[in-house]
Amino acid sequence: MREPKKFNPHPFPYHQEIEVEITALSNLGVGIARVQIDPEGSSFSSSLPGLTRKKEESEGWVVFVPHTLPGETVLARVFRNDKSHSQADLVEVIAPSPDRLDPMCPLFGRCGGCQYQHLSYEKQLAWKTRQVEELLQHMAGVKPTVSAAIPSPKQWGYRSKITPHFKRPRDGKIGDIGFLLAGQRSHLVDVPQCPIAMDEINDALPRIRQETRANAKAYKKDATLLLRRSCGTEPQQPSYVETNHRNPITESVETDNGPVTFHFLAGDFFQNNPFILPAFTGFVADHASSGGAKYLVDAYCGSGLFSLCLAHRFEKVSGVEVSETAADWARRNAQLNHIDNTSFRAASAEAIFEDITYPAAETSVVIDPPRKGCNQEFLDQLFAFGPSKVVYVSCNPATQMRDLKEFLAAGYQLTTVQPFDLFPQTRHLECVIVLEKGDPA
């Protein structure tokens, strides 16, 4: 391939092949190698501690190589040099890790949806736990004990929702229907089946792909499909796959007080690994209600997942959700489950504290923000209210650790860190941290 016009040749020429040892995984699931380069960047040796002039190179120049594992020796081909690291494609695994597995999906390595299918599940959990530990140290400056990541009961066939994409039709035909190619922002790989999706979704996928291609004239631009499993609304009614974002669907979560049924729009947010939700919501319930808290505030409450699964532990529960439709479904779900100690408000998260009259010393707050984390206005309002305990749930530990520094500065103590693996075979995870006002008892 021709060298890109703006390619930076330091420290490796374009498509230089280098043999390196992978020593770790990044939080993106990419293998990390460190190589020693001389002051001019004209030679290197693999993975040994570096001897270079730059501070960021003091432990060796970093090379990122996807689809590799710690302990492996690989041949990699450099395609980009940045200021402090290089990026390379995997050419060959010379010495594989004993934890390397044959991926279940033939598209692994091309499809960008999964990063860990080649890694044993035990080690997936270990690396996710370690990544939380490293984020705590590097971003928040603390070294607490991180509990081992809680595994998903199912490692395959667990996703209740997928959203395949396709480009606008050309010459009246739709091309690939699937997900982004690994490392790409616009190119797609065709995905006829997805082994981490539920069986119902894979059963429906061929028909939906065929119908979409047959209806190509209806699409004038790039589009995204929705396939979401819905439980039957009656005990004997079978589950089905919904494709319309605006249609309501059903999910059920088992709690220590019995099952809680949720209705919400198929296009709305709801955790898409239902198999781990009993343990996930149960953990949040145990920690939010411990210490005798009588009241619960649920910020970013969605259609009521935490509010309704935890309601039996509290005298009163107040939730807030920026999506009006989701907040309305939370109210309906409370009625559906005969839960009468909850109230829900459609507003931005910081607005919840305008109407809260609960004693702060007897109140726990659950927050489950989007990937960008909490904004400063919400945190300021939260700290001004000063609840006795906060249970912070996050799908992005990096922004969670950024916000953790604000909690520590406001006088909260970090008492518990518990990762949950809601997304086996991928780099993604959920992390729950528990913060208590002042010195923990």
Question: What this model shows, in words?
Answer:
The structure is a single chain. The protein has 441 residues and is an alpha+beta fold. Among the domains are: 17-100, OB fold (Dihydrolipoamide Acetyltransferase, E2P) (Beta Barrel); 126-155 and 277-437, 3-Layer(aba) Sandwich (Rossmann fold). Helices cover 21% and strands 28% of the residues. It has helices spanning 121-140, 199-214, 277-289, 305-310, 324-336, 376-385, 397-409; strands at 17-25, 31-37, 44-46, 61-65, 73-81, 85-95, 161-162, 165-166, 178-180, 188-190, 223-224, 227-230, 240-242, 248-255, 258-265, 295-299, 316-321, 342-346, 363-367, 389-394, 412-420, 430-437. The protein has a seven-stranded mixed β-sheet with strand order 18-17-16-19-20-22-21, with helices on both faces. Strand 17, helix 5 and strand 18 (342-346) form a beta-alpha-beta unit. Mean pLDDT is 92; it is low at 47-57.
Secondary structure elements and their pairing?
Layout (H helix, E strand, L loop, with lengths): L16 E9 L5 E7 L6 E3 L14 E5 L7 E9 L3 E11 L25 H20 L20 E2 L2 E2 L11 E3 L7 E3 L8 H16 L8 E2 L2 E4 L9 E3 L5 E8 L2 E8 L11 H13 L5 E5 L5 H6 L5 E6 L2 H13 L5 E5 L16 E5 L8 H10 L3 E6 L2 H13 L2 E9 L9 E8 L4
Parallel strand pairs: 4-6, 16-17, 16-19, 17-18, 19-20
Antiparallel strand pairs: 1-2, 1-5, 2-3, 2-4, 5-6, 7-12, 8-11, 9-10, 12-13, 14-15, 20-22, 21-22
Helix pairs in contact: 1-7
